[in-house]
Amino acid sequence: MTNTSQLTQLQEEIRSRYNSLSKRLKQVAQYVLDNSNSIPFQTIAEIAEKAQVPPSTLIRFADAFGYDGFNEMKQIFRQNLMEDTVNYTERVRLYRQTNGSDTVPETPMEILKNFAMVNEAALQQLSNQIDEEQLKKAVDILDKANNIYIIGLRRSFSIASYMTYALRHLQRRVFLIDGLGGMFQEQLSMVQSNDVVVAISYSPYAPEVVDLVSFGAKSGAKQIAITDSIVSPLAAFSDVCFVIKEAQMEGFRSQVASMCLVQALMLSLAVDEASE
Predict the structure, then answer these.
(1) Range of 79's domain?
(2) Which of 23, 47, 130, 159 has the fewest CB atoms in 10 Å of its CB?
């Protein structure tokens, strides 16, 4: 299964709706589809000129696809470009090019303050993003599971490994699927219907995680997903899906909100055990 990013989803939606758009919106659609790598570097005025439409048409185009203004849509293109830039030094340079050097913190203390500020905002939003009944359901699923399999690769690995660590301190039978030696499916081969698979993945979604979630679903195991979009490929298989909006700065996404959610799940299990 291939990676599915927010940009890919947007591009697919634009293509599927292209014939139903007005003439001017089609001009914007064509430009957007053909110039995804240059859009983050251009102003609205420049994009409008190149697409040969008034700037107001860009606003209507963004609104037609559910965005609050074209600048919000541009963030999808910018984030995709950041994620494709693996080298962190190059990612900072790219951020400066697309945002302007005046907006970029330079000193370690400025960077710390900015990270603290954006993470504070993300944590304040977290409790409003999470449905209380879904949270209770996830705790119940974890509590009743015979075995717990946790999958999280690349940047999600730190969350997955912490959750494994915490569950072992709760004396649960938990297995971290890390694919050592390429043995992803072998590590999940014993999963059964009375087990639970916890999958953690963010855009661009690790194809190995998506494949394993699909594999786990065939066994009838319960599934808990921690991801970043309601259209994440993990959501389709999940009994409970937590959509987390992490803080971002200079093209770097935090993991503070995700860690907070996992710690809340672990503490809830501990509280339930202490009450028995």
Answers:
(1) 6-99
(2) 23
